[in-house]
Amino acid sequence: xxxxxxxxxxxNENIVEWARIEFKEGWNPDTTLKTIxxxxxxxxxxxxxxVVIGVKEENGKIARPVKGxxxxxxxxxxxxxxxxxxxxxxxxxxxSEPVEYEGAHLLLVWCPGxxxxxxxxxxxxxxxxHEKTYYIRRLSSTIEATDLDVKELISLTHNVPFDDxxxxxxxxxxxxxxxLRNYLQSVNSNLLNEIDRxxxxxxxxxxxxxxxxxxxxxxxxxxxxxxxxxPEQFFPYTRIEVVNIPDPTGQGMEERIFTGPIDQQLxxxxxYIKNNVIAEKVFKSSEQAEATRIKNYSYEALExxxxxxxxxxxxxxxxPVTIRIEKEQIEITSTPGPDRSISDNDxxxxxxxxxxxRNRRIGDFLKELHLVEGRNTGIPTALKxxxxxxxxxxxFVTDEDRTFFSVIVPIHESFLTPLQKEVIKPIKSRRTKSExxxxxxxxxxxxxYSATSLYQKMGYxxxxxxxxxxxxxxxxxxxRISYIESSLNSSNNLLTKNNKL
Length: 501
Known about the structure:
By secondary structure, the chain is an alpha+beta fold. It is built from 15 helices and 21 strands. It folds into four domains: 7-159, Methyltransferase, Cobalt-precorrin-4 Transmethylase, Domain 2 (2-Layer Sandwich); 172-226, no CATH class; 240-414, Heat Shock Protein 90, CATH 3.30.565; 430-497, Winged helix-like DNA-binding domain superfamily/Winged helix DNA-binding domain (Arc Repressor Mutant, subunit A), CATH 1.10.10. The chain is globular, with a radius of gyration of 26 Å. Residues 422-429 have low confidence and may be disordered.
């Protein structure tokens, strides 16, 4: 059985988080079996992990040249692997595949999160003493679970994520061959070489999008969401609704509904935004050869926010993802809101970091398709895109019961009408430090801005200049301005005027 990701994509592309990959220079049953059981326990719902045997790790990187394994030893290791995995309780057998990487022979072992978790592993598999315990992953290390970890592992047996559950109302024929082929081609999977010789059942088994006994083999929910033409027949209102309201009166309002496999919905929605919403203004200055280009919205940020809505929404809640495009802002809403591991302050400060994922399998597929960022990097990527464009920061909104989550993205000020705000003007002459400081204070009278937003608002482009940075630092030293949150990185932080009422 082939593993649905190539060794090159696994090691060279940022599809699978590094903490989900364990390198073993050689075959060591004692350490390897513990890592396999930890990935199978999947305490953080990451989707398991991969063990690469034949690669040495040095300081978190692959040691080169890659030595690999003796070609004759790989078959022996696979037999040993099967024998030792029988020591796990309940029984758990990962998928293994001999692969070649940079001219070296390796053994790639795929350890998806197990359905029968938690799994116990012998403390010393190669000894006669088969005392068993639980192992988990913490960052990039395999450790013995504490009593609290064990309680959490046991609770997971009653908490299989919805996207990983068998759908009893569907049949294997509901997984469509053209969509499966397109996906494997998109991710350059080894399975594509075998697809013409395999049945839908075999392909579904390789991708882990079906499960159950042979006589009652059924798709799981993630398979239907990606590989059925109309997932709404199984999950009502699984769609993206876009409402474009250019005028507050509703005149000229346009509605679009995007349906189909969720990855196709996502592509169609963000392409609509790119082609129909994103606009650019160009400002030329006599003081610099390069023109200043500013967009009404950061496309990169909107792409991340819409992708996150698809990733983190609940497919048990019959509500669509909605995108409301108004004259001065875009609001993206999904249901429900973030879980309680994310505090109200995290939401307010735009520093959301989730330890658990509602849809771990959906995330895995979207990452392989390069439609979402890696673990906990989507929001920082969006904020960086907003700051680079000089746009106002977004607002995250939810209610007390966390029944919904909205991201409100304001339009760039230069796209507001003159009656609302003075349009950005090009620089006409070089300013003195005194003029720059006074202008900073003037702008901060009206609103709070990040340093980058202020720099671009004043008509500059490119990276913040040394002179501008000195002006900001001097104003802070003089206690005339300050950062709102001292704990935040200054690049994402807002400056405020200290005597502002």
